[in-house]
C-alpha cells in the first residue's frame, strides 16, 4: 500500500508517545537503533519485550506486554514478525480502544489485522520505518 507523504508527516508530527513492541537491549538490533533515534527526536519511547520486562532500556521501564503499560500511547510500533502482528493489534485495541496509530516496520505486514484496526478508526502504516521517514520528510 502506498502512503502519502502528507499522511506520514501528519502521523509523525502528532504522535508523542510510542510503544515499541519487540524492543531490544542489543545496540546492533534495528529496534534498539530506531528507539534511540525516536527518543533523540523528542518522542517518548516505551519498550515492550517480555524477556526484558522490569529492566530499564534507554531510560524507560521495559514492559512485558502492551497491557502492562500505564497510561495512553499515541502509536504502537511493531518490530516483530508478520505472524505476530494480529495478536499485537488485538492487544493494542483492547488496551487502548482509541489508539491513534499502529505502525509496522519494514517487511512486517498483516493486511487483515490492519483492516480490523482501520475499521476501529486507527491509522495503520505498514512496512515502513519511522526513522527513515523522519529523515526523509523532516
Automatic annotation (TrEMBL):
- Which part of the chain is the CoA-binding domain? 12-108
This protein's source sits in the domain of life called: Bacteria
Q: Which InterPro entries match?
A: CoA-bd, NAD(P)-bd_dom_sf
Among Pfam families, the record links this protein to: CoA_binding_2 (PF13380)
Q: Which SUPFAM superfamilies match?
A: NAD(P)-binding Rossmann-fold domains
Coiled-coil residue windows: none
Q: What is the protein name stated in its UniProt record?
A: CoA-binding protein
